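Now read these lines:
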Amino acid sequence: RRRGDPGAAVSVYGGLAGRLRDIAGELDDVALELLNRAVADGATSRPAEDKALTQARRAVEKAAALLESLG
């Protein structure tokens, strides 16, 4: 394994973290759309998918924070 510029790794981490933040935002948008659709359909409880989407978003945000802490 070659040793490269340490600053380049930090840049890579930041880039990955940014992409993960974008994905977290997309997951949030999907969850909001799901909730809006459920309300429009007359649902009185939270859709099961919303819990999974929320867990996925939190995991992605956690991964982004970990990468950001490396830089």
